[in-house]
Amino acid sequence: MSKPHSRIRLSREQRYEQLVETAWKIIHEEGTEALTLGHLAEQSGVTKPVVYDHFTNRSGLFASLYQEFDNRQTALMDDAIQKTKPELELLASVIATSYIECVLLQGREMPSVIAALAGTPELEKIRNDYAVIFTEKCRKIFAPFCHDKSIHDAALWAMLGSAEGLSYATTCSAITADQAKDELFSVIISMVQRSYYQPDNAMP
After folding, report:
1. How far apart are CA 96 and CA 157, in angstroms?
2. Rounded distance, CA 121 to CA 107, Å?
3. Which residues 6+ apart lie within 8 Å of 47 measured at CB?
4. Can you give 70-108 as a three-state secondary structure string?
5. Alpha helices in the chain (DSSP H)
6. Structure-model confidence comparison of residues 71 and 140, the more confident one
7. Is pTM, for the whole model, over 0.85?
């Protein structure tokens, strides 16, 4: 008679990665409504206290998924930027392409996660934190090509809004990925070019 298989013990980090991977799988196959901490525990082969120890509640779980997506998006974008020559059009293309492709890599699940978190403090904090990181990254990248080596905050936030809107439209199949990339590229170039027509004494 064969001995029963012993359960493999994972480190806390490994368990977290397993739970996140399983959560994305549930969303992809069953939708966000099916993703509860109890169902996640069942599908992951662990007890509920293990899942609660990592995420506390359902909003915390969705917040972790959103954060994981943001971290992945940032890593992919940073890697692409490092491999790009410091030229305006090349950098604009990298930012536009990286942003759209990362959203598409996650597929339709991302809008569902955002919808599930809508109105929660967890989502607002994560989105605000990421927005600051992304806009400051773009300020640093594109400022050398701008008038007086600076970009107005309003322009950066307008660019971010365009990126989010175009990404959403792409996941909903309202526009193609190429259309989204081309439009975001144009928005970035326009943002930089407009800076040349803003003299130091212009009103904000």
Report:
1. 15
2. 24
3. 41
4. HHHHHHHHHHHHHCCCCCHHHHHHHHHHHHHHHHHHHCC
5. 12-30, 37-44, 48-55, 58-82, 88-106, 109-117, 121-142, 153-171, 177-194
6. 140
7. no
